[in-house]
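Hi W., the 1,3-dihydroxyacetonephosphate complex you wanted:
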Amino acid sequence: MREFLVAGNWKMNGSAADSEALVSGIVEGAPAVAGYRLLVCPPFTYLASVAGLLTGSNIALGAQNVSQFESGAHTGEIAASMLKDVGCEYVIVGHSERRAMSGESSDIVAAKFLAAQAAGLIPILCVGETLQEREAGTTEKVIDEQLDAVLVAAGIDAFESAVVAYEPVWAIGTGKTAGPAQAQDVHQHIRGRLAAHKPELAEKLQILYGGSMKGDNAPGLLSMADIDGGLIGGASLKANDFLAIAAAAAQS
Ligand code: 13P
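Structure:
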């Protein structure tokens, strides 16, 4: 039985005070039951203070991006070892906003995945198609290419300590959610692709859904066989909205 993971990707939002208020609200309100885990991914500048507020809770800390390089002359970049140092357990790699706006290719994403694991972090590998790609009937092909870049670079065993997030680009921040059956189809495809390499590993892999997930649509999505949690943007910025999704996971 896979545990649910409900992850908040705060993106580039909030102040120090907002971050502290948000995480305190989440810590106070998180349902204390087994079978699910919460994760928050604040901006880099607030990782340390949020880490302090998470002490003693079962809520994990993650970052939104990481350098593919270990250290050195990479102005403005943050190394995986630094994220580990500040208390991160997870890091998001390959978010579609970074693929589209920062020109991250699948090869760069694969290098970041490897750098994260080398430092002992769990990468959350984001994959997903644009609306144009979906309408052209190439959803599975696009996702296969994104997955395969990491499979070739890291090997199937690397997915033992990784999470995959399916985030259809057309559903991110748009209020349009993939329907449960529509998302399930892609999740099942992802698991199947990895199962072709190692079935027992694919069975254990957590595959999260991301894209306008909210308290009202979470129960339907989380009821699907291959959806093991969510990667939440907008609804992770208010404690009550995030906790509504956590409650759906806790009850699923
Ligand atoms: P929204 O929940 O705002 O659609 O964002 C999803 C996302 O991009 C999480 O990484």
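The CA atoms of residues 63 and 150 lie 19 Å apart.

W.
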